[in-house]
UniProtKB/TrEMBL annotation:
One of its GO terms (molecular function) is zinc ion binding. Residues 24-143 form the Alcohol dehydrogenase-like N-terminal domain. The keyword Metal-binding applies. It comes from the Bacteria. Pfam families: ADH_N, ADH_zinc_N. Residues 181-299 form the Alcohol dehydrogenase-like C-terminal domain. Keywords: Metal-binding, Oxidoreductase, Zinc. Its cofactor is Zn(2+). This is L-idonate 5-dehydrogenase. Belongs to the zinc-containing alcohol dehydrogenase family.
Length: 356
């Protein structure tokens, strides 16, 4: 089978690997779609993502979906041919957390994540034609939802977790600063959770167009000098840019809540934070998700449409080109998808032809 393997900075290859066989409690997935995330780009560009550095080659990808090709012994409740995605996180160790964070498995100190170099040996991801996955991490895709949208349940879960870190949104005005894929999914998640009005802000017109398609009522083109709205009760900061923090805190209403979704640098960075104190703003972090992938799949089944997020599709053997498009701010890309199987519907082939 073929797999997308990163060997170091600027070195990604489509390699032949042995097709896996299911162990006890495992299923084999015949994968169909994968979504490129910022961590995939980071491993390709820098050989590292956050504090995790490549010690040996790694199969990329933690956003993926396909169909069950084989069941290992002891697996029940699943069937061959069933369309599924995966929860990519598996805590390592006894799983016991302090009472203050009981159940918040995203905060477990040691988590193996698909497509991550955090441990040695690394945890290979799902950008391959087949993948063995523990049955406990399998999540069925609802009827009427395709595997392409199912592959985006993972980033949608990140957005739903962020929305869950905020006060009740129903009827409230919400600001989302930064409209990359996660920010645009936060727009959709806020709308799904009943926000009264959603305003999206970004520096690029293409990102703002995606945010509007995902449900934003209004947009702020920061590059054109448009300022953020004032006195917004709930704000989501999804850019991860330290320079954005001052304006975003200023936009947050006195006594309001700012949810930090975008990853901030792990090194010192200048930021204007005075309004955090003088406006008594509640500033909370949001990291990955717990079981919100189940909520994401229910939302997709309810009709939440994430296809406006998808701007490019590439076959697996053009993975390096797909990474380059996803990494280039001039490409106008939002979510770039890899077709992990040689099979494609006529609609997919037509969409690809229109983009090439």
């Amino acid at each position: 089978m073929r797999a997308v393997v990163v060997h170091g900075p600027g070195d990604v290859r489509v390699e032949e690997r042995d097709r896996p066989v299911p162990g006890t409690g495992e299923v084999i997935l015949a994968l169909e779609w994968g979504g490129i995330c910022g961590s995939d780009i980071a491993y390709w560009e820098k050989g590292a993502s956050g504090t995790a550095s490549l010690a040996h080659p790694l199969v990329l990808g933690h956003e993926f979906a396909g169909r069950i090709a084989a069941l290992g012994s002891g697996v029940t409740g699943l069937r061959e041919g069933q369309p599924v995605t995966v929860h990519p996180a598996r805590p390592v160790g006894d799983g016991v957390l302090p009472d203050r964070i009981a159940g918040r498995t995203n905060l477990h100190p040691n988590v193996r994540y698909f497509g991550s170099a955090a441990f040695v040996p690394h945890t290979d991801g799902g950008f391959s034609e087949y993948r063995a996955v523990p049955a406990a991490q399998i999540r069925p895709i609802p009827d009427g939802v395709g595997t392409e949208q199912g592959a985006l349940a993972e980033p949608l879960a990140v957005a739903l977790h962020a929305v869950g870190r905020a006060p009740e949104l129903r009827g409230r005005t919400v600001l989302v600063n930064g409209c990359g894929p996660i920010g645009s999914l936060v727009v959709a998640a806020a709308r799904y959770r009943g926000a009264g009005r959603v305003v999206a802000a970004d520096l690029t017109s293409s990102s703002l167009a995606v945010a509007r398609a995902m449900g934003a009522d209004a947009t702020c083109d920061l590059a054109a000098g448009e300022g953020l709205p004032e006195d917004v009760e709930v704000v989501f900061e999804a850019s991860g840019a330290p320079a954005a923090l001052g304006p975003v805190l200023r936009a947050t209403a006195r006594g309001g809540t700012l949810v930090q979704v975008g990853n901030l640098p792990g090194t010192a960075a200048a930021a204007a934070l005075g309004d955090l104190v003088t406006r008594e703003i509640t500033w909370v972090g949001s990291y990955r998700f717990v079981e919100e992938i189940d909520d994401a799949l229910r939302a997709l089944g309810d009709g939440l449409d994430v296809t406006p997020l998808i701007t490019h599709r590439f076959p697996l053997d053009r993975a390096e080109e797909a990474l380059a498009v996803a990494a280039d701010p001039r490409s106008g890309s939002s979510k770039v998808m890899l077709r992990l199987t040689a099979e494609a519907t006529e609609a997919t082939e037509a969409a690809e032809a229109a983009e090439l």
